[in-house]
Amino acid sequence: MTEAAIEAMQFRQAETSAVRVRRRYAAERRFRFYGVLAISVAVLMLALLLATIVSKGYGAFVQTEITIDINFDSAVIDPAGTLDPAVLATADYAKLIKEALYAQFPEATSRGDKRALYDLVSTGASYELQKMVLTDPSLIGKTQPVTLTASDDVDMLNKGYMSRSGVEAERRLNDKQVGWIDGLAAKGLVSTALGTAFLTHGDSREPEQAGVWGAVVGTVFTMLVTLLMTLPLGVATAVYLEEFAPKNRWTDLIEININNLAAVPSIVFGLLGLAVFLNFFGLPRSAPLVGGMVLALIVLPTIIIAGRAAIKAVPPSIREAALGVGASKLQVVTHHVLPLAMPGILTGTIIGMAHALGETAPLLMIGMVAFIVDIPGGITDAATVLPVQIYIWADSPERAFVERTSAAIMVLLAVLLVMNGLAILLRRQFERRW
Amino acid sequence: MNLSTGMTAMTAAVHREDAAVTAKISAKDVNVYYGDKHALKHVTIDIRPQEVTAFIGPSGCGKSTFLRCINRMNDVIDSCRVDGRIAIDDQDIYDKSLDVVQLRARVGMVFQKPNPFPKSIYDNVCYGPRIHGIGNGKTELDEIVQKSLERAGLWNEVKDRLQQPGTGLSGGQQQRLCIARAIAVNPEVILMDEPCSALDPIATARVEELIDELRENFTIIIVTHSMQQAARVSQRTAFFHLGILVEQGDTEQIFTSPRDERTQGYITGRFG
Question: Which ipTM did the prediction report?
């Protein structure tokens, strides 16, 4: 080639090379931009979700209360003067509240009006009085202002969710009731306070008495059963399939089946639980034991698959070094392979347990959709779990259950965070060694 | 006497000389198959005690395969099949009744790439003694760890940081740690599969010094690609080529006057 031709070729190369470099930088910038865009969208969705839930739900933690003067009439509570707890417990405390209310609003004379007046306080208010007297019997005979929980309709009115206008017959509170509440509010007797009822009570038909604690305990028991069943079984299966099983057609078949089980819709496992655990084995319906077993079946394939991947990732040089020093196969697995595979196994566990925490359909099949008021004491007591509780409340007609549903979702997310936090802490312990 | 009878006489003399020393490890007609591939063919060799024997040969000639047969590390490879007899102290190691874990405690191994456990230096060395029940109690284990690290020439460098991870050491130090780990269980034989190939010359020199010191108490077999290393370090050498043990004998004799022309070709660099 001639000098000029070579020079021209070099110039063209330099030119195209500069263009290539510019294009490469532009492509890299675009790629980074897409990544940032994707993350921003994800974060935005998450923020939107959390904001919606929290804004709808925080109200459930605040309870409207009414303060009225109650006369702890000994004639009603303890006519014989025995101070016997059995007598004190069965006294008609509702009468005390009614008398106090009628005294406050003497214009309520008809039966309908009187009933409407009593409807302003919660049905559980009489139990609140009962508890006060049982803890402190010296109250008998005194008259003092007592703060009682208001009914859910008053609560909704106070928080502004109930309209004061509109056709009276369509509203939950008639005009007279609204007037009475306004009268009490004018005297400063209507207040809001941080209600602990939501976090300490079990479920109830009355929204102001309904709490999420029963569902939380049920969830904790169910998760415990699931974890205790699925982690040892899953890890042992993964270890056996990776380390000890011969590589033949049977093990291939098993691997295919496990991978397929991970994709089975969870309600099928619910049907299995119903048919085998409840009908065949006769285990108690709606118990965390059965719920835990069903969820364990759902989570098991995830843990086995993650466990196998983690064990496969342990370098063979470590195994050979351990064998060379004279460790048996079992010692190699327990002393070297498993500790190194633990972070991967724990990641699989986190994913599986988070999946199990939110499962509702299979648990409905085994009866956890029942209305359970008592806090479960053990894994064989009837219980409900948080997702099912949310589902039941979402279906309820009372307006107050709307904010309680969102609040229950907040509690579910909190439980999830605690569970994952513990697992991540545990994983960090193992990761540091490597 | 013509050349051939002279050669025969000399071979016979050498064999008689070999027979006089009782072999630590004796292999007779060993064949190794990887599936259908015949990797080692009719290998017969005697390894003498308290000596360093070097296996040399071009890549893929089967020397590492044979080394791994001696402590039955080939058992972990599913497709590998070993025929023939390998005996240590006259005991067939492929006998069905032999416990392979005990065998590996008597025959230690050091690998090509240093592979310390991801544990502390102390735990690396005391793992072997602990699982074999050598040394109970902290003081005994401390002693074993110190002695092994001293013999491996690593004690002075790590005595202040025994609890730090073994993976944090340099390449040469890691390999010496692996040697310390191997000798901590007090084996009779140490197998070394190209122990210096991943190390720099200075670390290599230290490991070779170490091998010379260890020779007094252990029987050592070293596989090496470097003929200079084999000449420096070993007393006996065996040359492998394409799965066949071509020649074995005293190192000096192999490198100065090899009997087989293939050996001659390899050591003069004509191939391999």
Answer: 0.86
